Amino acid sequence: MDLHELEAIAEREQAQRPRLRILCCAAAGCQASGALEIKRRLELVLSAAGKLAEVEVAPVGCMGLCGHGPLVRIEPEGTVFERVTPADAEEIVSALEQGPCNVLRCNLNHPFFTRQQPIVLRHCGRINPERIEDYIAVGGYRTLYTVIHELTPAEVIQIITRSGLRGRGGAGYPTGLKWATVAKSPGERKFVICNADEGDPGAFMDRSVLESDPHLVLEGMAIAAYAVGAEQGFIYVRGEYPLAIERLQKAIVQARRLGLLGAQIFESGFNFRVDIRVGAGAFVCGEETALIASIEGRRGQPRPRPPYPAEKGLWGMPTLINNVETFANVTAIIENGPEWFRQIGTEKSKGTKVFALTGKIRNTGLIEVPMGITLREIVYEIGDGTPDGTPVKAVQTGGPSGGCIPAELFDTPVDYESLAAVGSIMGSGGMVVMDEHTNMVDVARFYVEFCKDESCGKCIPCRVGTVQLFNLLTKLRNGQAQPHDLDTIEELCELMRETSLCGLGQSAPNPVLSTLQYFRHEYEQLIGVEVDHGS
Amino acid sequence: MTTPTTDTATDRNVRPASDNRRKILEATMKRFQYQGDALIEVLHKAQELYGFLSPELLSEVAHRLRLPPSRVYGVATFYHFFSLVPQGEHSCTVCLGTACYVRGAAHLLHELETLSGVKAGHTSSDGKFSLLTARCLGACGIAPAVVLDGEVIGHADRSDLATRIQKLLGREE
Predict the structure, then answer these.
(1) Which residues of A298-326 are buried (b: 16+ CB within 10 A; e: fewer)?
(2) Of A297, A432, A433, the CB nearest to B39
(3) Distance from CA of B56 to the nearest CA of A (A)
């Protein structure tokens, strides 16, 4: 495979393409709403009308507005239809010729679409994730060619460093710095791992990216491997995501067949092989050292750091671990240059972030917005508020490691530092909207119960602390708590935060602390009379 | 003598002479060159083939991969995915992720418990039905989500779900 062959594939793909294409979202959410049946019906109607040759029906990835699914897009016109049912197939096909069918038309001028800035999601919903040719036709794998033949590993790392990209898994560690550490760490073998163990409940960004554009992640990983000097990569995917696993497997086989993965990629000396490791349902495996233990076939228990995986990781070798979204940013940065990327976002948080907007919100779905956008813009403009107009009470970011941000702080810009300053974290991108009917003590207890069940049991502050915290919150919920129990809760939170071994235990108190900070009255109400008595 | 429940479970997992599950499992281990690192992959395959991980199966895997049985047992019990007891013929998994929770999944689960007479995380005594929970299926866009025998159902509706489960259990009224 060389550049000419790659371009020949792209040209052939463009030439073969029928004038009109009907793209059906076939990501997990829309599939569950009957998207495959819609595709089948569309094909039936088209073949009955003898139009199969001029109109193609293609399955594609996530189009974003999952709550209004299943979604169907007409290309090249760009119309999107929402809440489509198999019965609508005829109307959609006739609309191809006779112009608008307004019934199901989705308003693309809505801020949900206009306020977004897709970089990671730029191909999502536009290409068939199961065909590598579709990805090559939109320019795929050209960046990898440029990197291998025109840039040295050091130059690649410099570009990533200058771009200001930070880890999208939640902690926000500078990606370039991590790559540089792995590159200079001595080791006879090095590894690249893609962390796709998206465990935060309420988050599905990584799943959507893997289901919609698996090659973008593979290409990003290959570039990273070239930069740090690794020849073997692993993608650690949650077992709960069977469709993502299936599409990744297909993508790896296709890329290997075309010589874009494997030995001597693009006829160079660079070899890179990728294997999938399927998780077995343990939230703690999102923590990098636990993830490494799991790939090694052991219990997913974290170990103290340092040494960091960048120096001693998988089988004791230097290992680069990045999140799915981080790898998905790589090709765009190299294509457009670091200066382009630096222009997007805020001073310390560059680029965009993908969020899964869920909960009590009208426009549920996947969004990609520039860093620095305010929560108000996300909730009220993009999300369009709550479905029944009930006032929004809070937004939860960062899953069990994050916090609840109250409505009065909705002018907070979304970046790593600002979210941390209000007691939450950026997290991997889950954003759950809660309205007046949501009880915040229940929410805190829900997350603590989650951490209690998911604690690996290795260190005592987390193993015992989560159980005690859960019992205290249950006592509170049952109206049996005394005023001093609130102090005990706060003290316990502080202790867990300071002394737990890994991120799970250290951040498990965050949902409690942030709700205590902003919704203390809800806790005090549960103590009832005793509060007045005590004060 | 085994208990009656184990008997029905074993019956379900006994297949005629054409049973080549052991061969498939052996092939999987061979593909990983019998390396201990592949333990989780091998257990995934074993569970897929047999439905659950029996003590005999775990010993067999330990033996073939040359690992101490304690390590195999340790891994099998650590991860939620692996089940050491047989699962029901039909299963219903209710997602309890945050988005589903905010949209009433806990109430839904409670009603399913009452309806089926099975507590969450358990299997009915006749081995017909398991009621399970998940930590997030990533189908938050269509919350609350439920998986019924492998089929994901979005915007899960109580009465519709109740009818489907009654039908599965052959309790149509």
Answers:
(1) bbbbbeeeeebbbbbbbeebbbbbbbbbb
(2) A297
(3) 20
How distant is the Cα of A53 from the closest Cα of chain B, in angstroms? 33
Whether residue B36 lies within 8 A of chain A, CB to CB, comes out as yes
Task: Tell whether A133 is covered by a domain.
Answer: no
**Residue whose token pair is 């309790």:** B171
Condensed to tens digits (0 to 9), the pLDDT of residues B48-98 reads 999 999 999 999 999 999 999 999 999 999 999 999 999 899 999 999 888
User: Which CATH number goes with the domain that contains A160?
Assistant: 3.40.50.11540
B154 to A33: CB separation less than 8 angstroms, yes or no: yes
- Give kind and range of the element (H or E) at residue A163: helix A153-163
A118 located within any domain: no
Domains and CATH numbers, chain B: 20-78 (1.10.10), 90-168 (3.40.30.10)
Chain A hits for B154, Cβ within 8 Å: 29, 32-33
Coil/strand/helix, residue A338: helix
Question: Which residue bears the tokens 């409505």?
Answer: A407
What's the domain range around A47? 17-111
Q: What number of other Cβ atoms are within 10 A of residue A214's Cβ?
A: 27
Q: Which residue of B71, B81, B97 is in closest CB contact with A239? A: B81
Residues A422 and A361 in one domain: yes
Give A105 or A123, the one with higher predicted confidence: A123
- pLDDT tens-digit readout, A257-303: 999 999 999 999 999 999 999 999 999 999 999 999 999 999 999 99
Strand partners, A236: A195, A277
| B128 interface with A at CB cutoff 8 Å | no
If 0-12 CB within 10 Å is exposed, 13-18 middle and 19+ buried, where does residue B13 land? middle
Give phi and psi for B163, each to the nearest 5.
Answer: -60, -45
Please name every residue paired with A56 in a beta bridge, in sequence order, or none if there are none: A21
- The interface pTM score, or ipTM, of the predicted complex is 0.90
A355 shares a domain with A256: no
Contact A69 B44 (CB under 8 A): no
